[in-house]
Every structure is written in C-alpha cells, then in structure tokens.
From TrEMBL:
Species this chain originates from: Jannaschia pagri
Pfam family membership, one: ArsC
UniProt similarity note: Belongs to the ArsC family.
Protein name: Arsenate reductase
Length: 120
C-alpha cells in the first residue's frame, strides 16, 4: 500500500509511460478522484519479489508473449522461467499491473474497472 504525504492512499499503475493504456488508466483514475502514480518499468523496474507475487496471482497472463521484446528473444530464452525473464526484461510484463487501495489488479478490463469502483 502506498500513501501520499497527507496519508491518502495512492494507486500505483505499473507499466510504461509510453503505453497508451497505462496513460488512459492514470487519466481515468485521476478523473475519478483517486491519487494515482505511473511507475515506469524502464525507470523503476519491479523487484524479483514483486514479479514473483504478481506471477503467483496472475499466472501466465502476466507474461506478454506478443511484445517486441518477446519476439527478440531466442527460442532458448523463451523457454526460461517466466519470472527470470520478467526480471531481466521488465517490458515483458503485460500491463498495467495496478496496486494500492487494498487491490492488486492486472489489465484494464471491465472486472478491473469494477474492482476500482468505476462504471463499466
């Protein structure tokens, strides 16, 4: 859980600042009155512990096998442990991963928006 200086709970959108979906999530949550921050994987990569916890919760859906990074990996590398791959290449994490306010959510789906109290 993350809090602002005044103790207000903050939602962290884990992803990439160049990602249209991540920017849309930040904008939508801000407009809904949430304190929100975008954490760019390239500037502040998640730790192995974070990726492990996310992987345990979201399973294979966390690994983005459609990304440019994935396509650039060798067949041998693609067979590596998914957590090891995401630690080495954080851009392989399918985004966004949304944390804070007592939630850990993945993707920008109707279920995610509903869990955040947003209308679908």
């Amino acid at each position: 859980m993350h809090a602002t200086e005044d103790g207000e709970q903050m939602i962290i959108v884990n992803g990439l600042k160049a990602c249209d979906t991540c920017r849309k999530v930040v904008r939508t949550l801000s407009e809904a009155g949430h304190s929100v921050q975008l954490r760019d994987f390239r500037e502040a990569p998640p730790s192995r512990a974070e990726i492990t916890a996310w992987s345990e919760k979201f399973g294979a859906a966390l690994l983005n096998t459609r990304s440019t990074t994935w396509r650039g990996l060798s067949v041998e590398d693609r067979g590596s442990d998914p957590v090891d791959l995401m630690v080495a290449h954080p851009t392989l994490i399918k985004r966004p991963v949304i944390s804070g306010e007592g939630v850990l959510l993945h993707g920008w789906t109707d279920a995610t928006r509903s869990a955040l109290g947003l209308t679908t």
